[in-house]
Sequence to fold (210 residues):
Amino acid sequence: MLITEIKPQKGHLTGLYSDGELIVSLDSELAAEKNLKPMRDYPVEELQALLAQSQIRRAKSKALYLLEFRDYSSRDLATRLHKDFDADSAEAAVEYMTEIGAIDDSRYAENMIRHLINQKHYGRRRIIQELGLKGIDRDTAETAMEEFENDEPDAILDLLQKKFSRDLRDDKGIRRTIASLLRYGYEMGDIRDALRTYAESVEESGDECD
Fold:
């Protein structure tokens, strides 16, 4: 195909035109590296290969830009990149980010677990579920959980004291509290044990629930 004009475009792109018609937009650095010239005949296959290279390069740049603002799991990053690039380019960028250590699903899982325990006060079951929603496979999630010593009965008791004490005055409130704690990801046995401990502590202190 005869390329009659090559000129810069917005977004660090270079457009290749044939008789005024835009044929392909390439990453400007790639276009410069390939020393593309107007009034030359380029095979369609070569232009297609250049476009594929350009897409991968741009996807990598976008990935680095996104990672400046927050961490991503590999699946989340691929999904985000796929909004702007084809699947192959998105996956290639994710593979590259993994190779250079810019993303690491194990590290991501540990950071997310720390947040879910300390800020959300979730139990193990809910944490594994939340990690799965972010594309973290169960083996990676289970391994990451091993790094944390989370005493769930104590965590439940802390929630009962700080968040649910007002709901523990009657059976209806207790049932509502149990349902909430189950949604938090705690096991029924641990919930009952914590409720028993809480009731005993209230009885011993002689105080009613606030």
User: Anything to note?
Assistant: The chain has three domains: 2-99, 105-145, 152-205. DSSP finds ten helices and five strands in the chain. The mean pLDDT is 92.
